[in-house]
Write a structure and sequence with these properties.
The radius of gyration is 19 Å and the shape is globular. The chain has helices spanning about 10-20, 30-35, 40-55, 65-75, 90-105, 115-125, 135-140, 145-160, 170-180, 190-195, 200-215, and strands spanning about 1-5, 25, 55-60, 85-90, 110-115, 130, 165-170, 185-190. The longest helix is centred in the last third of the chain and has 17 residues, at about 200-215. An eight-stranded parallel β-barrel has the order 1-2-3-4-5-6-7-8, surrounded by seven helices. The mean pLDDT is about 95. Helix 9 links the parallel strand 7 (about 165-170) and strand 8. The protein has about 220 residues and is an alpha/beta fold.
Length: about 220
């Protein structure tokens, strides 16, 4: 399973990259705003900085909701770097745009997916990634992990190459469960990724090893 970090914070991206396990980055307008990145030119420049930090894919989200606007934004975004994946919302005009980008050879990430039907449409349009938001589904007492499992089943049934990118990952067990189900990618905050490092027996075991070493040295 690929590990993406869901942030626009350059320090967090660098920390994940330095661990040697980072495969890519996802962002959205809210994450950009959180870092104080506003204005089209500043946002484009920030995407360039992210691409310079990582080796893998960087999902850059369009703001437009009409077909022509999505196309215009996407064609500007892909000029930033070959790493850019155009992030397009799951709406009718978005599906049309994904098909257009696919035919042009541009990679896409269909975002804000909350149902199997939406994931099926994204795959048929040729999306590189589909992003079901499991955390937001959990927030409304809906089974986000069940959605991942259903998408996995349907994609495997028909041989769709669209990768399932489990988004809105909130904690360690989300990551583990998505790996069990067969999600191709997870994206979450740095804390959810570094949380995989933690186990009390590792801490106590290391403490004992060091204490025993120090007794005789």
């Amino acid at each position: 399973m690929k590990f993406f970090i869901d942030t626009a914070n350059l320090d967090e991206i660098k920390e994940a990259q330095d661990m040697g396990i980072l495969d890519g980055v996802t962002t959205n307008p809210s994450l950009m705003a959180k870092e104080g990145i506003t204005g089209k030119e500043n946002i484009m420049e920030h995407y360039k900085k992210i691409c310079d930090l990582v080796d893998g894919d960087v999902s850059a989200e369009v703001i437009s909701t009409d077909f022509d606007g999505i196309i215009a934004e996407g064609e500007k975004l892909v000029k930033i770097s070959p790493q850019i994946v155009i992030k397009v919302p799951m709406i009718k005009e978005g599906v049309k745009a994904i098909k257009y980008f696919t035919d042009k050879g541009y990679r896409t990430n269909c975002t804000l997916v909350f149902s199997v039907g939406q994931a099926l449409l994204a795959a048929k349009a040729g999306a590189t990634y589909v992003s079901p938001f499991i955390g937001r589904l959990d927030d409304i007492s809906t089974d986000g992990l069940g959605l991942i499992a259903d998408i996995r089943l349907i994609y495997d049934n028909y041989g769709y190459e669209t990768q399932i990118l489990a988004a809105s990952v909130r904690h360690v067990m989300h990551i583990i469960d998505c790996a069990k189900i067969g999600a191709d990618v997870m994206t979450g905050g740095l804390s959810s990724i570094t949380g995989l490092l933690k186990h009390p027996l590792t801490d106590s075991g290391l403490e004992k090893f060091l204490a025993d070493y120090n007794k005789g040295n």
